[in-house]
């Protein structure tokens, strides 16, 4: 998410410490801020400072660019009212920073009360309220039908023990794992991340002895904390991420990929496909059949014929022989058979005849030539070279794409799947939280495009012709299907002023 003027944010614990610093930094970006805190005097002061920064971007507004709401974050009713007022004032919620937190001033084992101990209050403020705020933030973002980012304030003490305050450490450890468990919300356009700095020189941090702070490398600067928060907001790839900040190591994400691999479970047997095992005694015939283009024509049937060819052995060096199991049929086959994919005049095109037809296929490696060391006989493979309408293909080994199984679904992933992926993710640099229009969406590439756009957390509008196709697209998760046989595409698109990316396939 780009931090730009006009966005809105709600910050709990925004009257002091890290919450105050983030509120002011957001104001410097021209972002509207709701400061939620229990301290009225300090909260109003922060809101006033944010308004002064916002005046540089919004000189004439009919509403406050920042406001303070007094709230006890452990009171769900007050908290819900704060989110409701923010939504009513700014029309949405783009960023929520849950920064309210306290420490425990006495050992928890000395508590003599039934339910009112300070340690219990610490859990309620640091963990329960964060869960409540996250819940309300998600509901607010969904109600506004806009993507958003939630930053929960953790602590380095949520990653390793803090012997002087085990209750604080427990509460922050809960925040870390709660947040990391929310990674799947990215599919709904909402990213939740957690920030875990070591000691920062706030009122709470200043209680810690200077000798210990020195051993830890000194206080982490507030500038580095704000930088970390903004990184988690801006980086669309971060969802369920934990950013650990120390003076000794700088900013790093935890756990590392190596640590993460230690606990990640393999795919369960019920979901795992049975590994493909091909016979190593594949019979290689003396001849095989293939489809060739013998005359240039847009009529594929009249332009092609099936011919039997001798299978030339031995296999060329650095080549492999693939036994084709499934080949892909493409709309572009007719362009290929009419010569549109070749340059030159008619005479040059005629000199190419006959040439092999077919763009993509999956099969099994039946034989390998000299100097091929990384591919073995029996390996399932995909190919994207001319000549796949055949029983066998001899292909340079560098063009082989090893796959898990030679299933027909793999063929669809080749031309259609890669076209959609490259167009959206590489060419268009697709982000989350956008509105994406896909035309001809019920076709092979279109079906991949709408699913990729949804998985990235976008709102998807798709066009098609016919009720059955419209039903298919709705099943794939499309938010708005336009059946151009029943309604006008231009009218629908003009009514959606937030359209940000067009993917056309025809």
TrEMBL record:
Protein name: Enoyl reductase (ER) domain-containing protein
Similarity comment: family membership: Belongs to the short-chain dehydrogenases/reductases (SDR) family.
Record's GO cellular component terms: cytoplasm
One family name in Pfam for this protein: ADH_zinc_N
Presence of keyword Transport: no
Keywords: Oxidoreductase
Record domain Enoyl reductase (ER): where: 298-502
PANTHER family reported for this sequence: 15-HYDROXYPROSTAGLANDIN DEHYDROGENASE [NAD(+)]
A GO MF label: zinc ion binding
């Amino acid at each position: 998410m780009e931090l730009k003027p006009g966005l809105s944010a709600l910050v709990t614990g925004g009257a002091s410490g890290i919450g105050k610093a983030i509120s002011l930094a957001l104001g410097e970006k021209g972002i509207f801020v709701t400061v939620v805190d229990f301290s009225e005097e300090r909260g109003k002061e922060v809101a006033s400072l944010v308004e002064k920064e916002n005046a540089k971007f919004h000189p004439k507004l009919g509403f406050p660019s920042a406001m303070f709401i007094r709230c006890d974050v452990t009171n769900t009713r007050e908290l819900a009212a704060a989110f409701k007022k923010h939504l009513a004032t700014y029309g949405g919620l783009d960023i929520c920073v849950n920064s309210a937190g306290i420490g425990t001033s006495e050992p928890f084992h000395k508590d003599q009360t039934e339910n009112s101990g300070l340690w219990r209050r610490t859990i309620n403020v640091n963990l329960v309220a964060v869960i409540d705020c996250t819940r309300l933030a998600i509901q607010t973002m969904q109600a506004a039908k806009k993507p958003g980012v939630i930053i929960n304030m953790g602590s380095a003490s949520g990653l390793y023990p803090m012997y002087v305050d085990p209750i604080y450490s427990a509460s922050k450890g809960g925040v870390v794992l709660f947040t990391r468990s929310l990674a799947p919300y990215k599919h709904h356009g909402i990213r939740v991340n957690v920030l875990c700095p070591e000691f920062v020189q706030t009122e709470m941090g200043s209680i810690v002895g200077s000798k210990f702070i020195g051993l830890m490398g000194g206080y982490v600067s507030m500038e580095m904390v704000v930088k970390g928060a903004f990184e988690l907001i801006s980086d669309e790839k971060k969802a369920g991420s934990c950013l650990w900040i120390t003076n000794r190591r700088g900013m790093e994400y935890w756990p590392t990929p190596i640590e993460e691999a230690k606990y990640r479970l393999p795919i369960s047997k019920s979901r795992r496909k049975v590994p493909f095992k091909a016979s190593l005694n594949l019979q290689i015939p003396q001849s095989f059949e293939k489809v060739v283009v013998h005359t240039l024509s847009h009529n594929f049937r009249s332009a092609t014929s099936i011919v039997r060819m001798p299978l030339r052995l031995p296999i060329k060096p650095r080549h492999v022989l693939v036994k084709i199991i499934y080949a892909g049929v493409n709309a572009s086959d007719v362009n290929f058979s009419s010569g549109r994919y070749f340059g030159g005049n008619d005479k040059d095109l005629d000199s190419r005849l006959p040439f092999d037809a077919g763009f993509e296929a999956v099969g099994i490696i039946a034989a390998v030539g000299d100097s091929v060391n990384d591919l073995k006989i029996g390996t399932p493979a995909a190919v994207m070279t001319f000549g796949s309408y055949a029983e066998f293909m001899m292909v340079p080994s560098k063009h082989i794409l090893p796959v898990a199984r030679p299933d027909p679904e793999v063929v669809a992933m080749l031309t259609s799947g890669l076209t959609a992926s490259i167009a959206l993710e590489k060419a268009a640099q697709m982000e989350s939280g956008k509105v994406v229009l896909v035309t001809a969406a019920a076709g092979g590439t279109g079906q991949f495009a709408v699913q990729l756009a949804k998985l990235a957390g976008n709102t998807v509008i798709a066009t098609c012709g016919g009720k059955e196709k419209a039903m298919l697209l709705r099943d794939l998760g499309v938010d708005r299907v336009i059946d151009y046989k029943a309604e006008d595409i231009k009218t629908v698109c003009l009514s959606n002023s937030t359209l940000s990316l067009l993917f056309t396939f025809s």
